[in-house]
Specification:
- By secondary structure, the chain is α/β, with parallel strands linked by helices.
- The protein folds into 3 domains: about 80 residues, Arc Repressor Mutant, subunit A, CATH 1.10.10; about 100 residues, Periplasmic binding protein-like II (D-Maltodextrin-Binding Protein, domain 2, 3-Layer(aba) Sandwich), CATH 3.40.190.10; about 100 residues, 3-Layer(aba) Sandwich (D-Maltodextrin-Binding Protein, domain 2), CATH 3.40.190.10.
- The longest helix is centred in the N-terminal third of the chain and has 21 residues.
- The protein is globular.
- It comes from Sphingomonas tagetis.
- GO terms for molecular function: DNA binding; DNA-binding transcription factor activity.
Length: about 300
């Protein structure tokens, strides 16, 4: 299809070229030859009267015009995707659909598996998959390629609809044979202890996790002994050590069934952590996604979260 002298298929190609900065990778994704993508880039350059991508050393760099095109291009393609996938109704007993959602390893460990199972078992032709939060997957969500993202409200996107799922709280966890700490932990013990933490924030956005933000705002400094790359890896390092972890209560309770750890009330009044579900604004009226959102809420309610 052509629109104002431009083959609209080239917009998809341009979107991928700006994402990958690679003719080779774009060709692989689109199932085209490299010469075909090079020719398409040539037509795009002619249309916009701009190089769009220029080689600097060994990498391709987007021109200023190409950078300005990225946001509206992503928006146009997300709108188009939402438009052409619309259906008048959705019947889980008959329709074929693959649903997707994003979440941290906290979501995956705590209740993500139950969502996957409940969705897949709701119809003979339904499937679901969970993607880990990261720069690429967040970009996919912004492009409308992911149905739902589950994350703390503090990290939610202002321009997409939101539904609150439940409120999470922070607790402390220790080895159940900790040599110094019993059933409670005081502020003094917390400050004197060494800690196991997950330091990196969520979704590749390098935003601080709420407990770390609160401690920083309160001028509280922890002596960090161990850093691990995910929430679910914090508690398994505690057995046999004197370390303390600050972790979400539901995750701690789930892992405590398998580990020799003790859960304690936190000595500080950490803020509540609202966990929310978001979906792309262009998918707000998609009947399948509306059903999926309702199923997520139903699963959360069934689990008593």
């Amino acid at each position: 299809m052509r629109y104002r002298a431009l083959d609209t298929n080239l917009l998809v190609m341009l979107d991928l070229l700006l994402e990958t900065r690679s003719i080779t990778r774009t060709a692989e994704i689109l199932g085209l030859t490299q010469p075909a993508v090079s020719a398409g880039l040539g037509r795009l350059r002619d249309h916009f009267s701009d190089e769009l991508l220029v080689q600097v050393g060994r990498v391709n760099v987007a021109t200023p015009l190409a950078e300005r095109l990225r946001a509206p291009l992503t928006d146009v393609l997300a709108r188009t995707d939402a438009l052409i996938t619309q259906r008048a109704s959705f019947d889980p007993a008959k329709d074929m659909r693959a649903f997707s959602f994003l979440g941290s390893d906290y979501v995956a460990t705590t209740f993500g598996g139950e969502i996957l199972r409940d969705v897949a078992m709701a119809g003979p032709h339904l499937s679901a998959h969970l993607e880990m939060l990261g720069m690429q997957t967040i970009d996919d969500f912004e492009r409308g390629k992911i149905d739902v993202v589950i994350l703390p409200r503090q990290l939610a996107y202002a321009d997409h609809p939101t539904a609150e799922l439940f409120e999470e709280r922070f607790v402390c966890a220790i080895w159940d044979q900790h040599p110094e700490i019993g059933d409670t932990i005081s502020e003094a013990q917390y400050l004197a202890a060494r800690h196991a933490v997950h330091p990196s924030g969520q979704g590749g956005r390098r935003l601080p996790i709420l407990d770390q933000w609160f401690l920083k705002q309160s001028a509280i400094v922890r002596d960090v002994a161990i850093q691990v790359p995910s929430f679910a890896q914090v508690l398994p390092v505690l057995p046999g050590t004197p370390y303390v972890a600050t972790i979400q209560r539901r995750l701690a309770e789930k892992l405590a069934r398998q580990l020799p750890i003790r859960i304690l009330p936190a000595p500080f009044d950490f803020p509540v952590l609202p966990i929310v579900m978001q979906w792309h604004r262009y998918l707000d009226q998609d009947e399948g996604v509306r059903w999926f959102r309702a199923k997520v809420i139903e699963t959360v309610a069934r689990l008593g979260l």
